[in-house]
Amino acid sequence: GPQSRSRKVTAQAVAAPSEQVMHSTTQDQLEVVTSLNDFAAGELMGLLKPVEKCWQPQDYLPDPESPDFLDQVADLRKRSAGIPDDHLVTLVGDMITEEALPTYMTMLNTLDGVRDETGASQSPWAQWTRKWTAEENRHGDLMNKYLWMTGRVNMKAVEVTIQNLIGSGMDPKTENNPYLGFIYTSFQERATKISHGNTARFAKDHGDEMLGKVCGLIAADEGRHEIAYQRIVDELFLKDPEGTMIAFADMMRKQIVMPAHMMNDLEHFDKTGRPLFDDFSTVAERCEVYTAKDYASIISHLIKRWDVENISVSGLAAKEQEYVCKLPPRITKLAERAQARKAKSAKVSKTEFSWIFNREVDLY
Would residue 222 show up in a list of annotated catalytic residues for this protein? Predict the structure, then answer.
């Protein structure tokens, strides 16, 4: 019946995680992480903002108890009317990614040595994870309400996508290993900062100053979080240069999986035979919201940021150092070739998205 058919589609629409390696952290690595407790309690916690100093979503939304609430909503709808559909798709995809926050908190709590052991543990790592999550929670709230009010987004289709994405989780291949986990988040926070920074610029270009401001505020939070995770890896490189170098190369070889790679609206794959995430990424690439060049530039940035070229290591770690330092130009070349190949072999140049009421958007 239809029930079993939709189950089958779901299975195909989302690639199943490959064999998962678990608990690869060594005893020595765990000791290194434990030795960073004072750093976590001091400098790391200092990169969070006190709640009373944080913006809240309501600061940038129409005020429901104000007598001119409906006029404010009408203004918002007028402002956002000029945003092209392809940019709307990237904004919705970014919002869906933010809304899968429970998955990211879960991921941090898979990491050995830093997880929240009770749910309200007072360890600095557990406090960081909860408070980081609490700051991030504002992002999805604000984008969701804003896009809902535009009237241009099929919220039901978006909500189905979010529920499926949270239900599917993610497989970042971090192996419960805090070295791998914090390299992943160092990369990923920068990726979201770049993506939100670009949508901010485009929203302003298309006449929605307020949406531009909203995306810019979120990008600024991601920038602060990026600094925090990169500082953790600084400390790991300081205390265990060889282990950290090997972990960095390992994450680069496996490639950084985007957090929303399992998104599924129960429609797109059925209609097109392509996973929803692939088409969303293609649109983001074409709109230059987040591109393969950005991926390579993040690796370049991390190499410079951690001064990877000048860290003194030997043996396997030295081989891995060489591998990592040669990566950015290689990835750029490979990405350009893959993109050209994809565009050439594509049977279609457009696709519809349920998120915007099945309106069509250019892929290439």
Answer: yes
23 belongs to the catalytic site: no
SS3 of 352, please? strand
Tokens of 349: 């140049």
Catalytic pick from 86, 94, 99, 136? 136
Residue type at 292? A
Q: Is 71 a catalytic residue?
A: no
State the average pLDDT over residues 280-308: 96
> Active-site residue 282, yes or no?
no
Q: What is the mean pLDDT of residues 300-328?
A: 98
**What does the pLDDT average to over 330-334?**
89
**Residues in contact with 118: Cβ distance below 8 Å, sequence separation at least 6, in sequence order:** 126
Report the percentage of the chain scoring pLDDT > 70.
95
The one catalytic residue among 99, 221, 265, 279: 221
- Can you tell me the distance from the alpha carbon of 143 to that of 218, in angstroms, rounded to the nearest whole number? 9
Q: Is 192 a catalytic residue?
A: yes
Measured CA to CA, the distance from residue 263 to residue 261 in angstroms comes to 6
Instruction: For 225-245, write each residue's pLDDT tens digit.
Output: 999 999 999 999 999 999 999
